[in-house]
């Protein structure tokens, strides 16, 4: 690999000179480098262009705005900033999956920063994992890696690319050969950053045609086939899954994620972080995702999104407007997002702008199962239903009906004893 010059500082004069080049090895220990840190911001003087400039340039670097461990797309983290300052810096990125345990074991001496995640004490046989690893192989040769990406930092573009390529080839984690279910990406707010964490689903979440008919009745097959075609053909739009709790909306979503795992990427936004939809930098997040996965269609899942879809008021105006903009119009043409919203209320209660033709991709009501359909499902599970009435999926799988809570009645029509 290309050699990287080391730096040597004269303590008397303060000048910096280059030592003999050092050759990079993945398992070589990182040279010890001392970087002077000022109490507040660091000021560095440099010149512009190939020759010397007449006027020096001062660079003020506020370390309070720099992450200590995690590399950001538009901003290197602290070790890289401290090492390069305003000198030549080139970055190379690669997305995939790697064996972090083996990488740490074979390059332990070069491990500069790391996060170690231990399982909760209540979890038996939990997995200990690495995250946000930074290796330093030379004074100006860094490699950052997490579960989904490798980022190389070097003084030249060729060095950064060679570092990433060599590391990826050695520690690449092959895809499992065993059957897997779908996968979705949980969107979270981490301070000022927007991140997503992958969540793998088991193979059992993918339903066979027979199982789907047992779960939702015979009418589901034709609708499901038509809906899959729309998700392949359309690049944006809103789908609304309506139904009372326990009627199988989430179960169907899990199946959808498994069936479309090769062509679509599913992003899940929890109800507690629904406000991320109206953040201006959310567009930047989607732009980066689109750059990485240009061959996929994106599906955003908003579960239990009743409040966010209600007719616009003072408490949800920004969220409704964000969904409208993301699902239709010029912004939707750019981002190309398909949005699936699950609601427990009725569609008549939500903002009617979401239901207009051209924006609404599909509207499906997930009903409770009639007694005959519920009985067939229960028998396939080796269970019997206690009462002849309709059932939700959750009640059938639980093996009994849900407990009904009788609330005391108050008012003029309340009866007393």
Structural description of this entry:
- With 417 residues, the protein is of the alpha/beta class.
- The protein has 2 domains: 7-171, no CATH class; 183-365, P-loop containing nucleotide triphosphate hydrolases (Rossmann fold), CATH 3.40.50.
- 27% of the residues lie in helices and 23% in strands.
- The protein has a 7-stranded mixed β-sheet, with helices on both faces. Strands 5-9-8-7-6 form a 5-stranded antiparallel β-sheet, covered by helices on one side. Strands 1-2 form a two-stranded antiparallel ribbon.
- The protein is globular.
Please outline what is shown here:
This protein has 417 residues and is of the alpha/beta class.
Q: Oligomerization state of this entry? A: single chain
Q: What's the main sheet like?
A: 7 strands, mixed
Radius of gyration: 28 Å
Q: Count the DSSP helices.
A: 12
The CATH architecture name of the largest domain reads: 3-Layer(aba) Sandwich
Considering the protein shown, what is the CATH homologous superfamily of the largest domain? P-loop containing nucleotide triphosphate hydrolases
Record the SSE blueprint:
Blueprint: E1 7-9, E2 16-18, E3 42-46, E4 57-61, H1 78-84, E5 90-95, H2 100-106, E6 111-117, E7 129-138, E8 141-145, E9 149-154, H3 157-171, E10 183-190, E11 193-200, H4 209-216, H5 220-233, E12 237-242, H6 249-259, E13 264-269, H7 281-292, E14 297-302, H8 306-309, H9 317-327, H10 330-335, E15 337-343, E16 360-365, H11 371-380, H12 393-398
Parallel strand pairs: 10-13, 12-15, 12-16, 13-14, 14-15
Antiparallel strand pairs: 1-2, 3-4, 5-9, 6-7, 7-8, 8-9, 10-11
